[in-house]
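thought: fold this chain, then report.
action: predict
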Amino acid sequence: MAVSDADIAFVQDLFAPLGDITTRKMMGGLSIYCRGRIFAMLSGAGRLYLKSKGDFDRELAAAGGELFTYN
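observation:
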C-alpha cells in the first residue's frame, strides 16, 4: 500500500510543533524530515518509525516501541 496525501497531511500535522517538517515519498513509504534532517519514516502499511538512540531509545522501548529491522 502506498502512502496517500491524507497520510502526508497527518504526518505534517502530527509533527508540526517541531517546526519545519518536510516529507519525501520513498519505496512505498515516506521519509520525514525536520529542518532538513531525517528523523522518522512512515511505512506504506502505516507504521511509524522514529530515529532514536540513548535515553530516547530506552524510553521508546519502555513504551513498547520495537526496533526497526529488515531482511
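thought: worth noting. The chain has a mean pLDDT of 90.
final: C-alpha cells above.
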